[in-house]
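Input set for joint prediction.
Command: fold jointly, output tokens.
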Amino acid sequence: LGLDILGGIAKALELIVSGDPDLYGIVYRSLFFSGTAVILATLWGTPIAMLISLREFRGKNLVKTFFNSLIGIPTVVLGLVLFLAFSNGGPLGFLGLLFTPGGIIIGEAILVTPIIISIATSAIEAVDPEIMNLAKTLGASESQASIAVLKEAVNGVLLSNVASFNRAIAELGVALLVGGNVAGLTDVLTTAISRYTARAEIPLAIALGILLMVLVFLINLTVLLARKTKMLLTVWRSP
Amino acid sequence: MQTWQKLLIVAALATIIVIAGTLVYFNNFAKRRLIIATTTSLYDTGLLDEIEANYEATHPVDINIISLGTGATIQVAENGDADVILVHAPSLEKTFLEEGWGVNRKVIAYNFFTIVGPSDDPAGIEGKTASDALKAIVAYGESLADQSGVTKIWVSRGDNSGTHTKEKSLWSAAGYNYNETLEEPWYASVGSGMGDTLNVASQKNAYTLSDIGTFLKFSKEGSISSVALLTEEKSLLNVYSVMAVNQTQPHTNTTYQINYADSMDFIKYLVSSETQQFITNFGKADYGQSLFTGAVQPLKDNAPQPIVQWIIDAAFFGGTECPPQYRNGYSELYG
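tokens >
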């Protein structure tokens, strides 16, 4: 009696190996929504990070603290806010985003933008200010000089992308409330796990859990390897 | 122009592409969308998945199912975010119709609630009526050595769903003030769907109210060890209804983009004799009994009794499933 966990895991592995189309549709949607959200958030966040880091203004630390604290916003709170905003009866209802893939993408992009802004701001600030001056001395315009700084900070921006992707693919609140967990349209790994558990379809839930863990692990491993390789290259180049 | 300004323009363009892309896709390229907000039991048992597949095979419509408790389902409909709702709380449905949120209600199916609990039944409720069973559970709760609130013997959905609404009415019928019962140390409220609630009740060796359909599914999958302890009686009847969401919001006269035509077509499909037969036969092979029974034919035949009379008493308003002032066309539904 009780839960047959080992049996569940065995069935889950069977589903993964057999290439169950429903299962991989969910994986595809998870990757697509989170990936697009991170691209969008990078586009929003980078110019804001440049503004914060390259300019001097009053309240700069307050702005940085503000974005830093938004990193930890509970996903279900953001999900609720967006659910109310995107509802047909809400202020942004005319956009037609509730229960759609576009809604999840925008929602997850909002969720991870503070991560991009915070990490990218630190990365740009860590670049030696001399680089900007040097570029200008060599005849670069203001915007060419800031691109030179951004190039130096690219590692930091990439790091923020990875952190954001991890957060987006593992979050539940926004995808569930804004997406509605519609099978085949807006269900992603996390929301589908919640659904299959509520439907006593435990092997499917376990299979999705395994795939989610594997994905997150692979992505982080790739980044680690990429950084290691780059470090080795640097060592190898230096005499 | 500075670099950050250029980048911001690119970001704005990308955002517009995502939003406009979503709008254009659903308006022009996707099949017509019919959003059904439903109570969890119809979805978690898998019944709606099969009805969806059958319907989509013969209609150029993409059904999107949002599974929530009845309370949340009604909220989503009032916000204009669903086209059709499937619910099982007649008292909430009555208010929904009276306030003008929905039209064309049809009773589609019924089954029975049951109280499930640990197989050794420490409160001794087996075979009792619902009222007596609740009294026995209270007595058992009060006799517990641990009154610190750690030991829970009753688990409630606590989510304003149809099942939760039924639970409240059962407590009052047994002579308890629900708001006081809620505060008892042995009473746990999980604020979650039926499946999660069954899981918690099973883990805690506690009792809970469940629709028979979800219970049978969980029981068969072996994820819970609880057993059903009560038999069919009038106060445990569970009636499912469908309603189309009104296009015009009653208070502000704002018009939502509700897919009314497809909603009504889907309602006609649900009450057709083929679908009704399908509902009654659903799960028989797997569970040895029906999870739901189609209600349309019994209401027409006025049999089997006394169940039909129970349905009328519990889920009809002024002698009809939908009073004339809450109908909008489609008179063939009420022949």
